[in-house]
Write a structure and sequence with these properties.
Blueprint: H1 2-23, H2 27-45, H3 51-65, E1 70-71, E2 76-77, H4 85-107, H5 112-125, H6 127-140, H7 157-161
Antiparallel strand pairs: 1-2
Length: 162
């Protein structure tokens, strides 16, 4: 339970750190946010069962996370474009992995394996993304938290199951 609370706390801290970029009305910040989101969302959305595709997506995301430049539709993007870019990309990538798993795997169970390959590879090289992924997963699906409180006599079953 401590690990669960710590992961959620780290996720909240990361969100608070990037909130200035998320809520900024400045045109430059909006453009930065848009470009960074594209650099994360497009590759994750392109994951398919083809091994070459999985390797390309992993390479692109890993390059971005290590500070290298990646090409989006019309420009190159790197973490050097904004002071909060690293935390922003980590947070959005973890969030997108969970969303992608929820949407794609629910309708196409075979898509779980290529997604899992990319997630586990990124997690191994970038543990902060892995921690944020787990925190987002716990938020989205509390039943995934490995915690089973003992049933106390007299507590209504509805309350216990919450």
């Amino acid at each position: 339970m401590e690990q669960y609370k710590e992961l959620l706390n780290r996720c909240d801290q990361c969100f608070n750190a990037i909130s200035a970029l998320l809520t900024s009305k400045d045109a430059k910040d909006k453009k930065t946010r848009f470009e960074l989101q594209k650099a994360v969302l497009l590759p994750v959305g392109q994951i398919s069962s083809d091994l070459t595709n999985v390797q390309e997506v992993f390479k692109k995301l890993n390059t971005l996370l290590t500070g290298g430049e990646v090409r989006t539709l019309e420009k190159s993007v790197s973490l050097s474009i904004h002071a909060l870019a690293s935390d922003f990309v980590n947070y959005k990538l973890a969030e997108r992995f969970v969303t992608q798993a929820e949407q794609e795997v629910a309708s196409h169970h075979e898509s779980a394996f290529p997604l899992a390959m990319v997630v586990s590879g990124i997690w191994e090289r970038h543990p902060q993304v892995g921690d944020l992924f787990l925190a987002h997963l716990y938020k989205k699906c509390p039943y995934s938290v490995p915690f089973y409180p003992a049933y106390k006599k007299g507590v209504p079953i509805i309350d216990y199951q919450r």
